[in-house]
């Protein structure tokens, strides 16, 4: 057992000190910190909102515009103060001096409709034009209501939209109010599951093949059994992945606890942090562990069959394809999590670690269904580890051209 822990800690220390581990961990930590301070970062690059000019010589029209807009015009997501001009030349001078975002000239046609001319220095954004059109369409409606002597109350009744009441006989959607927040977190979870499982599975296959090709494996096996070595390698790499996850969870928690960030001022404009589902986070970690053990053990199996490190990337290609398929199905599931296709594929063990997260995040799934998926995934993982252990014992002693056909040879060597 001492040999097991020696290999375990040696592999763990080597990996957490590696440049790839430190680079990826620090880089993603900085991304998390950047997201937590996204509002402050965006404010640094947010230009000051310049006033918008309104040119009209019609005092009645000016008064109505002021009354209906409260001298504030919202366009392009920005709030602009309105500056009034009686002639166009003054507005042009202000625009030329970069003191206006743009200005509008307002005239009345013969049929009493409004003619609004949008004048900008250079580019004209469609969203700005759409905002101006919406505002002045309401003003035009108000003017026409006055012409036919509608009261303000009658005018508001004319403009009021039809009331739509939505009733659902049944819905299995979870927390529809925070759908966007949940979607963002699910994308984050399935992306990390995909990246971490794939990267560490590839590392395992490469490490085993490299040790085997350099004959280091023969020295290792002489002091520790192949099965113990396999488990030490697999579990230590799993703990390296969990260390990364722990760092990424700990950073935002500490930032919040130390009052460095305010939960209401950081991502809450885009993500409702208070709606975090602890069940989803817990299941996400469990699915990551089981998914890692499943794909990691297969990576060790394939790596033990290869005699050169160059062959390891080809060996893990089937695993890469399976993970990629699961990832894309998961992305598709974001738009239709209750579809039959997503339901069926979420119970396929090779896809469960990714796709089931989508369903757990969006849908009210029964505990029994989650338990069945976990049980199925766990049974396949245990079976895979058992088969890998048997093949690994013989595969590390096989040399020559690496091939999946060597599985039978490896089993024969193990039996002998």
Tell me about this structure.
The structure is a single chain. The protein is of the alpha/beta class and about 425 residues long. The radius of gyration is 32 Å and the shape is elongated. The mean pLDDT is about 80. The protein has two domains: about 50-160, 3-Layer(aba) Sandwich (D-Maltodextrin-Binding Protein, domain 2); about 175-415, no CATH class. A hairpin with a 2-residue loop joins β2 and β3. About 65% of the residues lie in helices and about 5% in strands.
End-to-end gap: 24 Å
- Helical proportion, percent range: 55-70%
What is the residue-averaged pLDDT?
79
Give the low-confidence spans: none
Structure class = alpha/beta
Output the radius of gyration.
32 Å
Number of helices: 17
Give a topology summary:
Layout: H1 2-16, H2 19-36, H3 38-44, E1 52-55, H4 59-69, E2 72-75, E3 78-85, H5 88-96, E4 102-108, E5 114-119, H6 126-147, H7 152-159, H8 179-213, H9 216-221, H10 226-257, H11 278-305, H12 312-315, H13 317-333, H14 340-345, H15 352-362, H16 367-395, H17 406-415
Parallel strand pairs: 1-3, 1-4
Antiparallel strand pairs: 2-3, 4-5
Throw out a few tags for this protein.
elongated; ABC transporter permease; single chain; cell membrane; 416 residues; membrane; ABC2_TM; transmembrane helix; five-stranded mixed beta sheet
């Amino acid at each position: 057992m001492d040999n097991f822990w020696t290999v375990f800690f040696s592999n763990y220390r080597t990996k957490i000190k590696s440049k790839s581990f430190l680079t990826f961990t620090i880089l993603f930590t900085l991304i998390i910190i950047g997201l937590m301070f996204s509002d402050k970062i965006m404010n640094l690059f947010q230009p000051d909102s310049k006033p918008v000019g309104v040119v009209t010589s019609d005092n009645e029209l000016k008064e109505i515009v002021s009354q209906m807009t409260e001298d504030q015009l919202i366009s392009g997501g920005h709030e602009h103060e309105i500056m009034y001009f009686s002639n166009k030349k003054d507005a042009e001078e202000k625009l030329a001096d970069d003191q206006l975002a743009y200005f509008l000239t307002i005239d009345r046609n013969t049929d009493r409709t409004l003619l609004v001319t949008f004048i900008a220095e250079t580019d004209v954004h469609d969203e700005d034009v759409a905002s101006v059109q919406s505002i002045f369409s309401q003003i035009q409606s108000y003017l026409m209501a006055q012409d036919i002597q509608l009261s303000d109350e009658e005018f508001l009744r004319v403009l009021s939209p039809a009331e739509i009441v939505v009733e659902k006989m049944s819905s299995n959607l979870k927390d529809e109010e925070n759908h966007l927040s949940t979607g963002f977190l699910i994308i984050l979870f399935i992306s990390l599951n995909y990246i971490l499982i794939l990267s560490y599975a590839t590392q395992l296959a490469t490490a085993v093949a490299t040790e085997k090709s350099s004959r280091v494996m023969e020295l290792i096996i002489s002091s520790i059994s192949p099965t113990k070595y396999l488990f030490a390698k697999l579990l230590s790499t799993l703990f390296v992945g969990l260390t990364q996850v722990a760092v990424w969870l700990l950073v935002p928690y500490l930032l919040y606890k130390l009052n460095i960030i305010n939960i209401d001022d950081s991502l809450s404009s885009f993500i409702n942090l208070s709606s975090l589902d602890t069940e989803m986070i817990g299941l996400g970690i469990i699915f990551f562990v089981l998914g890692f053990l499943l794909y990691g053990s297969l990576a060790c199996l394939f790596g033990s069959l290869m005699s050169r490190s160059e062959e390891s990337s080809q060996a893990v290609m089937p695993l890469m394809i399976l993970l990629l398929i699961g990832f894309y199905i998961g992305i598709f599931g974001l738009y239709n999590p209750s579809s039959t296709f997503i339901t069926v594929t979420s119970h396929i063990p090779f896809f469960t670690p990714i796709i089931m997260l989508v369903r757990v995040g969006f849908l009210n799934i029964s505990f029994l269904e989650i338990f069945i998926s976990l049980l199925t995934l766990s049974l396949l993982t245990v079976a895979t580890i058992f088969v890998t252990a048997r093949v690994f014992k013989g595969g590390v002693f096989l040399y020559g051209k690496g091939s999946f056909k060597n599985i039978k040879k490896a089993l024969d060597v193990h039996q002998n």
